[in-house]
């Protein structure tokens, strides 16, 4: 078994303004930075050491990982693996709705099904397939026993839904900014088993 830690990015300016991000981006708020510090403190308190650190290339995810690394090093971590940006960890595209108000999206924001496809957005079936493949690649790499992937809300939700039937902890949990999801991964079957979902108390 290998272990995958999925971390949603910290709060952003668009989160505060209830705007759609998707492939577009906005910076972390001061609270978002503190959420990333809190997530890193929780990770350090568990005694976790990562063999691999991957992130969506979008700025809010990269910035979150930078804060996490800074906090881990401040808490005594001497050697961290390099940062690996992976396009496959990006959030779904919301097409023409990106940057606009979330209330203007003609479907549920995080799980719109296939409603966005006619507008040029990414459907949930394609997103789930993409994110499962990406997370599997992250944790299946040679020599990797424990990996971190910094990701996004809708993408993380689709990964969680893909494996809910095998989960070992309650799944009816909100995926707040900088929540941490912990999965055991069985390489022989390719399956993921959710062990914990931890939201930051901020």
UniProtKB/TrEMBL annotation:
Protein name: Histidine phosphatase family protein
Catalytic site positions: 9, 91
Record carries keyword DNA-binding: no
CDD domains the UniProt entry points to: HP_PGM_like (cd07067)
Keywords: Hydrolase
Residues bound to substrate: 8-15, 60, 91-94
Alphabetized InterPro entries for the sequence: His_Pase_superF_clade-1 (IPR013078), His_PPase_superfam (IPR029033), PG/BPGM_mutase_AS (IPR001345), Phosphoglycerate_Mutase (IPR051695)
One biological process term in Gene Ontology: negative regulation of glycolytic process
UniProt cross-references to Gene3D superfamilies, sorted A to Z: Phosphoglycerate mutase-like
A GO cellular component entry from the record: cytosol
GO molecular function annotations of the record: fructose-2,6-bisphosphate 2-phosphatase activity
Hydrolase keyword on record: yes
Pfam families: His_Phos_1
């Amino acid at each position: 078994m290998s272990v995958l830690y999925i971390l949603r990015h910290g709060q952003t300016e668009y989160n505060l303004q209830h705007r759609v991000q998707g492939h577009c981006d906005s910076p972390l708020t001061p609270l978002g930075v503190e959420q990333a510090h809190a997530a890193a403190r929780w990770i350090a308190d568990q005694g976790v050491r990562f063999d691999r650190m991957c992130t969506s290339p979008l700025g809010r995810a990269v910035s979150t990982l930078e804060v996490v690394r800074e906090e881990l090093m401040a808490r005594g971590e001497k050697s961290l693996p390099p940062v690996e940006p992976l396009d496959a960890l990006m959030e779904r595209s919301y097409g023409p709705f990106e940057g606009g108000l979330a209330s203007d999206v003609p479907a549920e924001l995080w799980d719109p099904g296939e409603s966005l496809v006619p507008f040029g957005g990414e459907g949930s079936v394609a997103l789930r397939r993409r994110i499962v493949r990406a997370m599997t690649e992250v944790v299946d790499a040679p020599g990797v026993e424990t990996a971190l992937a910094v990701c996004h809300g809708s993408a993380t939700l689709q990964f969680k839904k893909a494996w809910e039937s095998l989960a070992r902890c309650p799944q009816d949990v909100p995926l707040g900014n900088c929540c941490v999801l912990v999965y055991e991964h069985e390489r022989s079957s390719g399956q993921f088993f959710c062990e914990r979902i931890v939201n930051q108390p901020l």
